[in-house]
């Protein structure tokens, strides 16, 4: 009897973690109806990806054909090998700044080597199963990061939006770019401005009144027709790049010079870090839209293979594209075949209609990227975060400002570090300590099985025995504060009970704090009893020396109070309420 797809997916082990979703879909059964749905979705996504891929490549400082090669080769491999049913891979706007900077400093060869290395890094990340940890990037970091990228993309399109003629190469940093653009304002081309504004207006109008239509392709095609028919003096792909070759280049390995490899390694790490975050974020969005679940490490392996393949064909960095993935889902895609067909449709365009791309005006593509940049800024999310806590606001603003004015990788790392510190602070505030002096047992129903009076009434009012009850995770963030509180044991106390029944976790710092407390209590002749520990908490305490004769363990506070009122040294009968210790 053949194994069902659900049973196959549920098997533990490496094979289940790295099985491409294409295999899962084929196991479920794939027929003509599914192929038809995937073909329609693939064509729809290809129509969106066609102008966008060229626009991203041009904004990245390379020729538009490299953007198409990226979408064709990288997009095919992402869908073939990926861990998401609906992920669409290709060039992304988030990489524009990194790619442009790499090209300016290291040239095309440096870009290809960095892309190849980033693919190898992504393969390693996926093989080491680190994909789960990448998804721990805090929400304010992703919102601030994408908003910053949107600002950078919009700024990079000002030259083509206005049809400016710059006196020198356009700098990549925003603060260096602004003076150059300002000094070039007298060279504004009104026709280019009109084409750009018309493109933006058409896209916005179609999104509002005909959302099912391919707005990007219609706007760009319309702009090209107007420019050619009216003979407008506007730069086009043909006048600036000489057109697009008809066909894919033969695969070739970039020059792997050791000095060049060392020089572009930081760029490659940035590509891999940004690509992993972008692709997994896109996969999570797809899961939310469809109710499916992706395999993060399998997806990262596919992204690595796609980047290697793109570099061999002269393409750019590949990642999961959120907008194109969402378009794929809305178009009714059934599975990864849609993404593979999207790549084949783009290849067909390159083989058949590449000469037509020569007539596309650069101002129209700049208009397309301006719309993309606007959509990248999550306005509602930013407003919500600004109205929330000061900590989230600080993480958002720091990430945004570092992205715009410093470096993308630095923005992610600093934002993540700030988010982690904020989380530690919040968790340290979540743990509480209660003091019960004297201890009074909780009320129980009459005749309840647990009803008992484990010690005499005069013992219950004994002020020399104090009970501390901790609630929450006890870790290094709270160890110092709680340690100072617990350390204030009055000399008049002859015993105290530490109730850890509400502590689900304790780390080595907290365990070491309790070990120091136990040693101090033992020196002062104060009996210390710990109650209610879980197996994990007790194991951590024992590893750090919190054991006899320093302390005794009890299952409940009542048992602990029995032990606390026994004469010291405690008799062996205390073992009836003490778990076995190694």
From TrEMBL:
Region entry Disordered: which residue ranges? Answer: 561-582
GO BP: transmembrane transport
Pfam families associated with the record? STAS (PF01740), Sulfate_transp (PF00916)
Q: Name the domain of life.
A: Bacteria
From the record, give the transmembrane residue ranges.
Answer: 39-60, 67-86, 92-125, 137-158, 178-204, 216-244, 264-286, 344-374, 394-424
Kindly give the SUPFAM superfamilies that the UniProt entry links to this protein: SpoIIaa-like
Location(s), subcellular: Membrane
Q: Which Gene3D superfamilies does the record associate with it?
A: STAS domain
Q: What is its main location?
A: membrane
Membrane topology term reads:
Multi-pass membrane protein
Q: Tell me which GO cellular component terms the UniProt record holds.
A: membrane
Write out the entry's keywords from A to Z.
Answer: Membrane, Transmembrane, Transmembrane helix
Q: Which residues form the STAS domain?
A: 455-564
- Record-given protein name: SulP family sulfate permease
Q: Which organism is it from?
A: Roseospira goensis
């Amino acid at each position: 009897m053949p194994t069902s797809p659900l049973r196959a997916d549920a098997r533990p082990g490496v094979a289940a973690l790295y099985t491409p979703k294409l295999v899962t879909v084929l196991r479920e059964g794939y027929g003509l109806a599914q192929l038809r749905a995937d073909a329609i979705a693939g064509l729809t996504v290809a129509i969106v990806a066609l102008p966008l891929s060229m626009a991203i490549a041009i904004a990245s400082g390379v020729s538009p054909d490299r953007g198409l090669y990226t979408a064709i080769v990288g997009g095919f491999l992402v869908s073939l090998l990926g861990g998401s049913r609906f992920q669409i891979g290709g060039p992304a706007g988030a990489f524009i700044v990194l790619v442009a900077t790499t090209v300016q400093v290291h040239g095309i060869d440096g870009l290809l080597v960095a892309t190849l290395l980033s693919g190898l890094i992504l393969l390693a990340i996926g093989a080491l199963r680190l994909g789960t940890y990448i998804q721990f990037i805090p929400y304010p970091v992703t919102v601030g990061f994408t908003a910053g990228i949107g600002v950078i993309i919009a700024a990079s399109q000002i030259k083509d939006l206005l049809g400016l003629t710059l006196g020198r190469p356009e700098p990549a940093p925003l603060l260096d770019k602004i003076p150059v653009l300002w000094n070039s304002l007298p060279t504004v081309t009104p026709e280019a401005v009109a084409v750009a504004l018309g493109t933006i207006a058409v896209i916005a109008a179609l999104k509002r009144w005909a959302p099912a239509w391919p707005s990007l392709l219609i706007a760009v095609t319309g702009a090209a027709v107007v420019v050619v028919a009216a003979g407008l003096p506007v730069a086009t792909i043909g006048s600036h790049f000489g057109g697009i070759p008809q066909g894919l280049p033969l695969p070739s390995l970039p020059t792997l010079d050791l000095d060049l490899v060392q020089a572009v390694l930081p760029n490659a790490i940035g590509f891999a870090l940004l690509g992993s975050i972008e692709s997994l974020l896109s996969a999570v969005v797809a899961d939310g839209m469809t109710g499916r679940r992706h395999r993060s490490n399998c997806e990262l392996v596919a992204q690595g293979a796609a980047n290697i393949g793109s570099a061999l064909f002269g393409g750019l960095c590949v990642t999961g594209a959120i907008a194109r993935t969402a378009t794929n889902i809305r178009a009714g895609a059934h599975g990864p075949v849609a993404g593979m067909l999207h790549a084949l449709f783009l290849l067909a365009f390159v083989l058949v209609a590449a000469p037509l791309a020569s007539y596309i005006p650069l101002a129209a593509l700049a208009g397309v990227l301006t719309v993309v940049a606007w959509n990248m800024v999550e306005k509602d999310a930013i407003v919500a975060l600004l109205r929330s806590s000061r900590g989230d606001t600080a993480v958002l603003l720091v990430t945004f400002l570092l992205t715009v004015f410093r470096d993308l990788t630095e923005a992610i790392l600093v934002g993540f570090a700030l988010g982690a510190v904020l989380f530690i602070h919040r968790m340290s505030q979540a743990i509480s300590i209660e003091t019960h002096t004297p201890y009074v047992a909780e009320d129980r129903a009459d005749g309840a099985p647990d009803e008992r009076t484990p010690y005499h009434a005069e013992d219950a009012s004994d002020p020399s025995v104090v009970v501390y009850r901790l609630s929450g995770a006890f870790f290094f963030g709270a160890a110092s504060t709680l340690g100072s509180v617990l350390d204030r044991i009055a000399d008049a106390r002859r015993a105290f009970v530490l109730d850890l029944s509400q502590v689900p976790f304790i780390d080595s710092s907290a365990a070491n704090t309790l070990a120091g407390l136990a040693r101090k209590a033992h020196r002062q002749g104060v009996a210390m009893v710990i109650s209610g520990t879980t197996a994990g908490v007790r194991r951590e305490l024992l590893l750090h020396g919190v054991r006899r004769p320093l302390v005794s363990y009890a299952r409940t506070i009542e048992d602990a109070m029995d032990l606390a009122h026994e004469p010291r040294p405690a008799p062996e009968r205390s073992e009836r309420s003490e778990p076995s210790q190694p």
